[in-house]
What we know:
Layout: H1 7-12, H2 14-32, H3 42-52, H4 67-83, H5 85-88, H6 93-109, H7 113-122, H8 128-136, H9 138-162, H10 169-184, H11 187-195, H12 200-208, H13 210-231, H14 235-255
Amino acid sequence: ICLNDYKEAYLSNPGKTITDLTKTIEEMMQQCITHIEVAIDAPFHENIMGITRKGMHPTSVNKALPLVSRHKYSQKLAEFFNENKDLVHSELLPLREKLEKYNARLAKAKINDMDVVEKIQMGKLNFWKDRLKLTFLFPLTLLGILHCGVVYFLVKWWVEKSFKRKVFYGSVKLLLGMILMGLINIPVIFLFYHYLYPSYILGFIYYALIGFFFLAAYISKMSWTDLKRKKKINDLQLKELAQERVALLNEIEKVISVA
């Protein structure tokens, strides 16, 4: 939008021009994002994407699908909601309640939707992926803990204590962690030179790899946590949830044309 194009209109009628321009910007933004006109329908929209795994759900998603196609699917589903408000708030209410109950059961049992998908696709949970990560990353994990462990827990403790809104946790932890880990580990270059090999170049390369050591440690931590959680899952309960999920997917595809 070129504001100069609105100069004459603004000089003649500022209020109307600002209103018209605001409306134009709003319409352009709605074309770029997933826009749902009724705010209370947003969780329903997200729950459907979680079951179909085609959209922009934060956790339950088919990563084989391109990001662009998943974004377009999310928009198409939102358009369906906006164009069929009466249907969404009447005939689709039972489906909305079923999805909410399904997610509540997942949360109560501490099961992720991806665990259910894994059960449906493979017939059982896959433990080997996490075990392989823990095995192959073990040496790098030890180095990551050595160089970054103390900083990680200190930053985590300070951020979670200082910021009330969790939305800021990730970005602040990342920024502070990078700065402190980088500063604290500078002496490693000189320690490498004096105690391992007399080369500042190799010492700097080792220093530059510390970030990767931390990443390995973080991946191992997540894999270990996921492995412990999966071992506690009741197989019979998982089987029931898998059957419920299949039924929900069939119902969604039946009643929502764009799903």
